[in-house]
Every structure is written in C-alpha cells, then in structure tokens.
UniProtKB/TrEMBL annotation:
It comes from the Bacteria. Keywords: Methyltransferase, S-adenosyl-L-methionine, Transferase. GO terms for molecular function: thiopurine S-methyltransferase activity. Pfam families: TPMT. GO terms for biological process: methylation. This is Thiopurine S-methyltransferase. It comes from Litoribrevibacter albus. InterPro entries: SAM-dependent_MTases_sf, TPMT.
Length: 165
C-alpha cells in the first residue's frame, strides 16, 4: 500500500482487525487520524494517514460500500478465507470496481491434504470460475525452500501465483 501511495495513487484499504491497521501505520512510521464512520448503518473506524494518501477502513468488508474503485490489489485477503467465503468475497470485490478496472490477486497453491491454512490454497480453477471476467496468470514463484514451516509438514511445493486482469 505504501509503494502505491508513493507512486501517486490514493490507496484505500479495508481491514477486519484494528490491530493490523495500527501495526501498518506503526511499522511504516506513519501517523493517522482515526474517526468513527457509518456506512449504511455499519460502523467502521477510518484511519487517514497524515503523511500520504492512504486510508484504512476497519470493519466488516462485506458491509463496506463506497464509491467504486479503479483497481484492486489483494495480497493476503482471499487466501485468509476458507473456501465457503471466497465466492461472496470475490463478488463483493467486483461490485466495488469500475468497469475496465485493473487488478492483481496473489494466491498460494499447495496440497491441502498435507497441511491446512491459513493461508489457504486457492486452486487456479476455483479462482477463474469465481471471477466474472478474464484473468491472466502473470507469474508464479516456488517458495517451499523459503517456507520451512510448510516444508516440515511434508509439502514438496508451495507456490505463490499472481493473477491480473
């Protein structure tokens, strides 16, 4: 998020955990104003950065409704959700996007019979069937050697995949 703001973009994040929002600002040496906000009767905390164009809404993502956005970057939300929640999550993401938007979703793929998440494995077929537009696999990195926790569970592969539209 910080890199995107440094490129001149206005960045909006939605986070369930207030601890995660506080940690983001602290880890990056940033300060923020925090206000209570209501969106269609749902309560949120809004963290607005003093130093850059980053705001983080803390609350229920599925109740988050504002103007539509030009782009989406999902680094760890989809893979934190169990399979049963992914269709609703991806549908809500798409409802928040303008037509012709751009985006990047990062997933992980591994054998969930040997280990379970989070992060959860999201198979390419699942992602492409749930996303209503065309997705392109932009890249893949094998991380098993950098992930001793997963290797110790018997996994021989732990891939990070990058999907764009």
């Amino acid at each position: 998020m910080l890199w995107l703001a440094e490129q001149g973009y206005q960045v909006v994040g939605v986070e369930l955990s207030e601890i995660a929002a506080k940690d983001f600002f602290a880890e990056n040496g940033l300060t923020a104003d925090v206000t209570d906000q209501s969106i269609n009767g749902s309560q949120f905390l809004l963290y607005q950065c003093h130093q850059c164009a980053i705001s983080i809404w803390v609350g229920d993502f599925f109740k988050f409704e504002t103007d539509v956005f030009d782009a989406l970057y999902d680094r760890a939300a989809l893979i934190a959700l169990p399979e049963s929640m992914r269709p609703a999550y991806l549908a809500h993401c798409q409802a928040l996007l303008k037509n012709g938007s751009n985006g990047l979703i990062i997933t992980v793929v591994y054998d969930q019979t040997l280990a379970s998440g989070p992060p959860f494995s999201v198979q390419p077929e699942e992602l492409t069937s749930l996303w209503s537009g065309p997705l392109v696999k932009a890249g893949e990195i094998e991380l098993i050697e950098q992930e001793p926790r997963w290797k110790s569970k018997g996994l021989t592969s732990f891939k990070e995949q990058f999907w764009r539209w």
